[in-house]
Protein 1
Amino acid sequence: MDGRFGPQPRRPSNLPTALTFSTKFYQEQLRVIMIDKNYNTVASVGVQPMPVPTGGRELSAWQRWWLRFNESPEVRAYLMNGPMIIILLLISAFPIGYSFWISLQKYNLRQPNNIHFSGLDNYTRILSNGEFWTSLGVTATFTFGALIFEVLTGLGLAILLNEKFVGRGILRSVMLLPWAIPGVVAGVMWKWIFNPKFGVLNGLLFQLGIIKEYHSWVGFDPRVAMASLIFVQVWNALPFNTIVLLAALQGIPGDLYEAATVDRASLWSRFRYITLPWLAQPIMIIMILSTMGGLRVFDLIYALTGGGPGDSTKVVTFTAYKKAFDALDFGIANAYAYILTFITLIIGLIYIRILYKKGEIEQ
């Protein structure tokens, strides 16, 4: 007690030494409770709080409530974070809600006098259109291909960097460079590398005698274009995947490998029964991030292939972009975005269910 609520009650001299004092607020009063060693209440005295000096005026009930309200740590936390929470709601929640509202309307800027609410008509038109299913198939091919190679290359490089060899530290540092390059920059950079006339890749392969003439890597053959996109996506995600798996590898107890060596377990058996089970959850996390990244990829497609050749690399996000900024049909474009969001949500829930089916992740 610091004396803010008036004179403090003195302990009567005739009370047994076993009595103790406890204080709490009860109905706008400071209640002093005396209890014995068995925690039975002996006496309870209400003490009115001392008025805070305010220039000769006592604080009103509202002012006293505000003082108590402002002294709470939780309230101070909300007051300090409140402005940022409001800003985040304005710049994220409002656009999301407004875009969903537009997806329920016929909203084509080429027909500004014909904008009206149409319900789920945009969604039914998309789901009954072959263009959507074609772009969804392209998206699935790209996502699945990138997923497989991201896991394999990340795992292989992590196992390599987990071994001791000369130059391991330099290799770990250089490995981070692709991760620092944004998707658009990576797309433009690889577009120049794949250039059919003066690209570095054609020049290198020609000098080594592997090819006899320059090839178009992203502008002629649909399969080569898709393979090139998957390669760039894997190259860009490789550092992060490797770091995650390398950290998990370094957390595996060395005693397990020593015991397996004593039991004359083969290299494959040690990988299958020791390494792989310990890496199951990190691999699942990489699969989640890779799948989400593949489903929403846009910058790489825009910078590297532009959806071509033909529509062979025209993913759902790029189709939505074309609907919005070429056809100016923002209702259809937003409906595309929300259909993809729903698909991503379903896949994410499946991944999370698999991830947690054996219990919580061990820390």
Note: The beta strands are 20-26, 29-35, 41-47, 105-106, 116-117.
Protein 2
Amino acid sequence: MTKTSSIRLATRAKSVGISRPSLVPQCAQASRQVERVAFAVPGDLATPTGGYRYDRRMIQELRRLGWQVDVLDLGDGFPFPTAAQRATALLLLSVVPGSCPIVLDGLAFGALPEAGALRSRPPLIALVHQPLALESSLDTAQADIFRESERDALAAAACVVVTSEATGRIMVADYSVPSQRLSVVRPGNDPVPPARGSNDALVRLLSVGSIVPGKGYDLLVAALAAIADLPWQLTIAGDRTRNLAAAARLDADISAHGLGERVAVLGAVPPERILELYSASDIFVLASRFEGYGMALAEAIAHGLPVVSTTAGAIPDTIPAGAGLLVPPNDVAAFAQALRRLIGDRAERRRLAINARVAAAQLPTWQDSARLFAGAIETVRSELFAGIAAN
């Protein structure tokens, strides 16, 4: 590595709170005084997706619990890093001293099977929002590459944190992760008022999520086209820059079905606007092909909204019985039928909304989730220091 590259890496490390000259003695000393952890994230922590939002909030809540959290930016490119990006990430991880556990976001972890080389350094805690191989836009060959890569990487993890029981089952069955190394830490929720809904004959539908193939917007638009005779209006809120091809297809589908006056695609919107959209809606809809949890779905339940979605991934765990209608993924006819049932039956919408409000009281808060996450880190730390003492 060139001298210029070393300077660049040192500059990046310093900018995220990991300074090679100073962290080693600080962390070694801090391990006896405060609880400290490094949280490694690929790219911009402000990226508007559910996974990054989980990371941001968990970092915030851990700090409120008294943890010293050093955020480590591994750089862009994941989960398809170049050789240079991969080398940079591994070097940044290697400067964290052995007394500080590293929480490594799965978007990078699964693409870094070389993480096993760090086994003798800080203990690694994998944070898996969704297995990389289950991204619906991948071809079979790339999915197989990701599956093997993530399995190899997870073998080096001291603990694997997943955001749903469903993802935990996948980790055990398909990735050979021992159940005793798993911790399920669902996303938390903030208290919100019940949705007020509309006060006219038009049923307002809301869908929230990045415009990517896995969210199934093509299926949703096709299903809505089949019930164009009903009085509905759809608003979609989600980042349009994550997958430009998916965004272009959504626009084309809306135009092809003649739904331009009935479907509003807003792009990414600020949190306060999201709250307004939930409050003004009557039904939450999401035609996902897979969800590792489904934070937007949980938020809909928190607002007391009835849900129409699919049985993919963790969605049946996230949507309580009686709070929504779930159909098989990729089934346009079944999704259209569920929409027709709810749009045409105000009493049924009211019944599901009541059940959703009851279920909302059982959702974990972010403080609840942070305590569980802290417990997983503390278990790893305790094992680390017990091993040090034994040696």
Note: The chain is about 45% helix and 15% strand.
Protein 3
Amino acid sequence: MIDKIQWAKSMLQATNLKTIIGLFLTFGAIIIIWKLPHFLSLSNTPAVRELSTVAQCDLTKGACYAKLDEVEIALSIEPKSFSSLKPLHFTAEINGLDATEAILDLQGKEMYMGINQTSLTLAPDTRVWSGVTELAVCTTGSMIWQASIIARENDQTTPIKATFEFVAQ
């Protein structure tokens, strides 16, 4: 009789232990599933340091500036009349950062216009990067564009980004 009671107690303890372990595993799985997207996005997307535009600017009249701490980017576009499907020459002068890479990213502000990224080329012995691209056709006639210059010193540094707006036909 005592053997049966001891056996029943040991079975009850084993069942309680299995239940507790099952609860911990379930709770752990829920936490992993809940936090996994956050951890994946941190590993795949580097942080970007955003520069602020210095003042209200008009790229049809000249260069626009953005600054963060010691880093400053000046962007200009030629010709000064911006039209779809016509070559535009973008020039970015990057000071306060020994950039090893610079990219121009063009996006429609209020409408997705596809991916339009251009690697900029550094002029020898300067801090001036340039490239040529075209704006996609907009069926609404006039559109606000955002030109972002994204630069970094090397693969290990956090990229910087300066965004400038302009209107094109």
Note: Residues 1-45 form one domain.
Protein 4
Amino acid sequence: MRRILAAATLAAFVLVGAACTANGTVTTSPSSGAPATSATTVPSADPSAQAICTDLRTTVLDRDAKEFGTDLGNMIAARTKGDTAAANTAQQAATTKLHQISAKLRAHADEATNPDLKKALDDSATNLDKLASDTDNFSKVDSLPAVSQTTQKFVEALSEITKFCS
């Protein structure tokens, strides 16, 4: 059973972590193959963008994604044991985590001055809220393949902000 929990956590972490690996700097120089440095940051770029993207990587894509994966693993473990109460508790923890992440994204959207960053944060937050509300999806999380499907939905929900921060 511990293998399932570890695998579920790892699946969530790997899928989400792979989606956002860059430094968060917005570049506008398509002709240059080299990554932008702070000296070449576009003056009109949101000065908080790098800090927001860094925070998202360290909290959402690391700690929060692992916690969400653990909640999914706990849900599978409880369902395997036939423990409906524990499965419901784990499902509630997973949906609560998604709403917490969504709230973080919206808080960052309030801080951002770049309209594209604001939109990416708001869109990703809305997508996470939709995933949290998809009770049919969570009722089907009873195996490792189902966890993979749900973590893929998590990655897709965050796609707008990961595009911006990569």
Note: The first helix runs from residue 2 to 19.
